[in-house]
Specification:
70% helix; mainly alpha; single chain; 7 helices
Length: 177
């Protein structure tokens, strides 16, 4: 074979995967549009990754401190099972599975923050995330996105101020505010 023959060959597209894995990644997909199928396969990959991640966290957290991390165990057990039903939602619309997965993760994380309480300091990470999303919303100049992120940012900011006030009052010095 000559070099010119190698250059003239059409490039090979796609990744070769096992047939059982292709069937698993295509679970629930009924569309015939290639772009929709590709997006829904990505959602299915995210679903399986979420379930596997939650399973590993459940095992490691249970070994570390079973009683103390019980809210996290509930969260991880639910996130191992519930996302696996999301591929069945693909037949209801192009983006129904993706939106459902995003909302499930959001609500589940809010449950963890609520269940662990203010003393766990988990909310500090969420205020940073809210700040980044608010900055992105301002960059996009999307008023609905800005309003939603600003409201969440204000709630987390208020919580931080209450925690600071409580912390200072336990030390005996309360700032005049």
């Amino acid at each position: 074979m000559q070099r010119r023959d190698l250059v003239r060959q059409a490039p090979k597209r796609g990744i070769k995967i096992w047939s059982w894995l292709a069937r698993l990644l295509s679970a629930g997909i009924v569309s015939t549009d290639k772009d929709v199928v590709r997006r829904q396969r990505c959602v299915n990959i995210a679903v399986f990754a979420t379930a596997a991640n939650s399973a590993s966290h459940l095992i490691f957290n249970a070994v570390y401190d079973f009683q103390g991390l019980l809210p996290l165990h509930i969260y991880n057990a639910a996130m191992m099972v519930v996302p696996l039903f999301i591929p069945r939602l693909h037949r209801l619309g192009e983006n129904t599975g993706a939106i459902t997965l995003a909302l499930l993760i959001l609500v589940a994380h809010m449950f963890v923050v609520w269940a662990m309480g203010i003393s766990s300091d988990l909310h500090v990470y969420y205020i940073f995330g809210g700040a980044f999303l608010l900055a992105y919303a301002i960059y996009r100049k999307d008023p609905v996105f800005i309003l939603g992120q600003a409201a969440g940012f204000l709630v987390y900011g208020r919580n931080l101020m209450l925690i600071r006030k409580k912390h200072l009052s336990t030390r005996g010095t309360v700032p005049a505010a």
